[in-house]
From TrEMBL:
Gene Ontology BP annotations: beta-lactam antibiotic catabolic process; response to antibiotic
Source organism, top-level taxon: Bacteria
Pfam family name, one: Beta-lactamase2
Low complexity compositional bias, start-end: 15-27
Record's signal peptide: none
Domain named Beta-lactamase class A catalytic: residues: 91-276
InterPro entries named among the record's database cross-references: Beta-lactam/transpept-like, Beta-lactam_cat, Beta-lactam_class-A
Key words of the record: Hydrolase
Stretches for region Disordered: 15-48, 372-395
Species whose genome carries this gene: Deinococcus radiopugnans ATCC 19172
Protein name (database record): Serine hydrolase
GO MF annotation terms: beta-lactamase activity
Length: 395
């Protein structure tokens, strides 16, 4: 049986061979810090309002209905992206401007912020960290002495919450939030490490409990409140946070709480972030190599019907109590660039990972509405006589 907190971390631990990297190993990508490129602050010509915030999603065709039933609130954005303007060439959507909890999908923003810090010369991929009482989050965790490169791999490939929190705090809470702020994604919140939102949801943050300002806070107010919530969360052991969180979910959870405390976004804003992340990141070539290698380890390619036609892929998913999210970017053999963002909140199922096949059936329906059906490659769509599948893996 899965405990409530275990639901938030995939309800199982990653295989030891994949999850426990050698703490003494050097990064597989040798990186030399560079001065920031002069164009790293340029913003692509996406449609913005006069206040600098991204405008609402353009009017597009409604996404096809989910092929298989999915409960709760649902959102989807699938778009072929012009690689120069980053505008949608063709897109479909369902509730593209509705807010959803991101769960672990947010972790790719930590990686992007981390690589910006690397390019600025403020951190090294060989910098090492131990797991401590203050930085341990829920679920499995890295070996002591793991370096930044190893932690970045665990964060995406294993969805390791402790690795994420170590990197998020090393970069700085506001610098991760700045990934969204710099793109005018004014409804996207990325500032809290994982243990912070769980501690707050479990009732362990006096700051969160004592203010009604957090959910709508922006700018310096949000940064100040987030720092207080972070200090309070680090005062408790991870197992204590887990026990309190279990009790919360068993006795008083309501989905509206998720929107108050979690990092969140809309399918359209997240799709916009993905387009910039993979096509206009402003990173140095060495940092882009690191980013692409790590993001390719995220789940999704094997579940896409276009998988055999994909030449580049990056993806990340997340799950929680009644929450499931999947997002990704891919390039096809004929050069088309696609982003997708699937979001489910308030599902009838508390443990949502079994919804993965249903989620990707809908994502694939959206992709095929945008690109058309994938070309035939032989006995099966992937050349092996079988259709693409979604193994029982962590998002």
């Amino acid at each position: 049986m899965c405990g409530a907190a275990a639901l938030l971390t995939g309800c199982h631990r990653a295989p030891a061979t994949a999850a426990q990297a050698d703490p003494g190993a050097e990064p597989s990508v040798r990186l030399v810090p560079l001065k920031p490129r002069p164009d790293t602050t340029l913003r692509s010509p996406v449609t913005s309002r006069t206040d600098g915030c991204l405008a609402a999603a353009p009017t597009v065709e409604k996404a096809p209905p989910p092929p298989f039933a999915l409960s709760g609130r649902l959102g989807l954005w699938v778009a072929q992206i012009d690689p120069v303007t980053l505008q949608p060439v063709r897109a479909v959507g369902t509730n593209p401007d509705s807010l959803f909890p991101l769960a672990s999908t947010y972790k790719q923003a930590v990686l992007w912020a981390l690589l910006q810090e690397f390019d600025a010369g403020r951190l090294s991929p060989t910098e090492r960290f131990d797991v401590t009482r203050e930085n341990q989050s829920l679920g499995s965790y890295p070996f002591d002495g793991s370096n930044i490169k190893t932690l970045s791999v665990r964060m995406i490939a294993n969805s390791d919450n402790t690795a994420t929190d170590i990197l998020h705090r090393r970069v700085g809470l506001q610098r991760v939030q700045a990934v969204a702020d710099g793109l005018g994604l004014c409804r996207t919140r990325l500032i809290l490490p994982t243990r912070d939102w769980w501690a707050a949801q479990a009732g362990l943050s006096a700051t969160f409990n004592g203010t009604s300002r957090w959910a709508s806070a922006t700018g310096e107010t949000r940064e100040w409140l987030a720092a207080l919530i972070d200090d309070e969360a680090r005062a408790y052991r991870a197992d204590y946070v887990q026990s309190k969180l279990d009790r919360y979910f068993e006795t008083r959870h309501v989905p509206a709480d998720d929107l108050r405390v979690h990092n969140l976004s809309t399918p359209y804003e997240w799709g916009t972030l993905l387009a910039h992340e993979f096509l206009h990141s402003g990173l140095s070539p060495r940092a882009v190599k690191w980013q692409r290698e790590v993001m390719a380890l995220g789940f999704g390619k094997s579940a896409l019907s276009w998988g055999p036609q994909i030449t580049a892929f990056g993806g990340k998913g997340g799950n929680g109590w009644g929450i499931l999210t999947y997002s990704g970017y891919f390039q096809t053999k004929d050069g088309r660039q696609v982003v997708y963002a699937f979001m489910q909140h308030g599902a009838d199922q508390t443990y949502t990972m079994p919804n993965t096949r249903r989620a990707f059936a809908w994502i694939n329906a959206g992709v095929e509405a945008v690109l058309g059906p994938p070309p035939k490659t032989g006995a099966g769509q992937d050349g092996t006589g079988t259709k693409p599948h979604s193994p029982n893996t962590k998002p």
